[in-house]
Amino acid sequence: VVQPYVTGRNARASFLGLKPGTGVEALGIVFVDSGSDFQTMEDSLALYGDTGEAARAARTYAEPALLPVAASQPQADARIRRIAQSLIAGLGLRDVFSIDFRVEADDSIHLIEFEVCPGLPCFDFRAYCRTQWDMGLADAMAATAANRFFASPTR
Prior knowledge:
40% of the residues lie in helices and 21% in strands. By secondary structure, it is of the alpha+beta class. It has one domain: D-amino Acid Aminotransferase, Chain A, domain 1, CATH 3.30.470.
């Protein structure tokens, strides 16, 4: 897949349906500000796995800043929520997913990708769990699983 360059800022919408019926109000929509126009593969490798550990050891590890989209571009935030709602309804997204966008200064939105199995230990998803659910990643995932289990009619 070849993707043309799209202007704007990187944004991510993270979702964890902690409780059955959780909707787009629980989306965490943030700009992912790495200090450059886009995150390179080298930037990504410095955040994850063995290469992330090496970056920590070398003291070069730096997580991008996460800034709420609604704080500076509320119209873009609302548009992203509508797009997410369409994906939930149209594709059946639920439980846990993330969606990446480019957001232009005029609030134009470009969907880049979505993942139904996002990098859960990723810095931004951990931050989302803390901000949205006031829980660490492990506790949020355990609560989500328990809520699904106890809500299941077949248990």
